[in-house]
């Protein structure tokens, strides 16, 4: 007759089993944290690279204006002028508007980058290399349980909304930018338990979605429209220069110069397209991360985020190349 096996576990054995169980959970948590940190890190890098596009918005406008000015002055020298400032009047006003848009976009980008940078650091707290940082953050949280006050969060929100308005966001996008900045000010300046961090990510997701959509629209429409205008102005300027040249050798030189200059514009277009794609990957990856607690296990989260991490890693050099 089979005799049921009776387990007589000592206190030591029970503790060992509990320790091993905790270790397994920690491994899943650490693996999850590493995946989140990698995604947040590559997102931060992509957003940093994109700042060059925002900075080029007024420059592109000025280059196109200067090319048109040269054409109107019966320009015949194929080399660009040493310096150029748009004429006073409407063109100067439009340049100032473009500069304000650049400043607003840079401020918005900083807030969004700060969010992903904070997310990367918080997701890394569980790793051994960041244990001291975690202890420091835990100590800081204990000493300041209330966190940032409402005045600080309100100021962050107002500043972000003003920046979004300068960046030509619509009303819904301005509101989302303000909310994102407010949440960053309140939720990510003190240490968080994993459950709280997941809650914050879910709360952030609709605002991250709207802000990245707004940035993608501006890059894909406003900036690419400026580059198209710049390309046309270049073509007209060089075309006019060729018509005023009778020497075949000089005409060839003019053509080579045009190919070089228009090639730069094409590279900037490619960089803009790559950055727009990067914003789309950031948005989709963050959305996947936001639904992770309810849809994914910690073990599968790394696999779920890997496609976005890989795509961003491929897009970043393309952004760098064009700018």
Task: Please tell me about this protein's structure.
By secondary structure, this protein is mostly helical. The chain has one domain (32-322). 82% of the residues lie in helices and 0% in strands. It contains 8 helices and no strands. The longest helix has 62 residues, at 11-72. The model is unreliable at 1-28, 72-82, 127-147 and 190-194 (pLDDT under 50).
3D shape? elongated
Please give the domain count.
Answer: 1
**Alpha-beta content class:** mainly alpha
Measured between the Cα atoms of the first and last residue, the distance is 80 Å
What do the pLDDT scores average to?
77
- Total number of β-strand segments? 0
Low-confidence stretches: 1-28, 72-82, 127-147, 190-194
User: β content, as a range?
Assistant: under 5%
What is the number of helical segments per DSSP (H or I, 4+ residues)?
8
Largest sheet: none
**Helices and strands, in N-to-C order?**
HHHHHHHH
What share of residues is helical?
over 70%
Gyration radius over CA: 27 Å
């Amino acid at each position: 007759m089979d005799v049921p096996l009776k387990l007589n576990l000592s206190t030591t054995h029970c503790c060992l089993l509990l320790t091993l169980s905790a270790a397994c959970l920690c491994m899943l948590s650490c693996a999850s944290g590493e995946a989140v940190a990698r995604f947040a890190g590559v997102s931060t890098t992509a957003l940093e690279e994109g700042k060059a596009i925002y900075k080029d918005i007024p420059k592109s406008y000025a280059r196109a204006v200067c090319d048109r000015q040269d054409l109107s002055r019966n320009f015949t020298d194929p080399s660009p002028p040493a310096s150029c400032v748009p004429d006073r009047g409407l063109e100067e006003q439009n340049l100032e508007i473009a500069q304000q848009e650049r400043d607003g976009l840079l401020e918005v980008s900083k807030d969004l980058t700060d969010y992903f940078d904070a997310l990367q650091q918080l997701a890394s707290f569980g790793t051994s290399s960041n244990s001291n940082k975690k202890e420091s953050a835990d100590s800081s949280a204990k000493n300041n349980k209330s966190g940032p006050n409402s005045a600080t969060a309100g100021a962050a929100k107002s500043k972000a909304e003003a920046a979004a308005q300068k960046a030509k966001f619509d009303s819904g996008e301005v509101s989302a930018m303000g909310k994102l900045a407010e949440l960053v000010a309140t939720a990510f300046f003190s240490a968080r338990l994993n459950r709280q961090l997941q809650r914050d990510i879910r709360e952030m997701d609709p605002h991250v979605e709207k802000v990245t959509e707004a940035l993608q629209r501006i890059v894909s429409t406003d900036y690419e429209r400026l580059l198209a205008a710049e390309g046309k102005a270049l073509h007209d300027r060089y075309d006019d220069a060729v018509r005023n040249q009778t020497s075949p050798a000089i005409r060839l030189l003019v053509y080579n110069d045009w190919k070089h200059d228009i090639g730069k514009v094409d590279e900037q277009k490619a960089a803009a397209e790559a950055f727009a794609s990067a914003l789309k990957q950031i948005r989709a990856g963050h959305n996947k991360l936001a639904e992770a607690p309810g849809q994914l296990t910690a073990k599968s989260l790394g696999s779920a985020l890997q496609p976005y991490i890989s795509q961003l890693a491929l897009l970043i050099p393309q952004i760098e190349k064009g700018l």
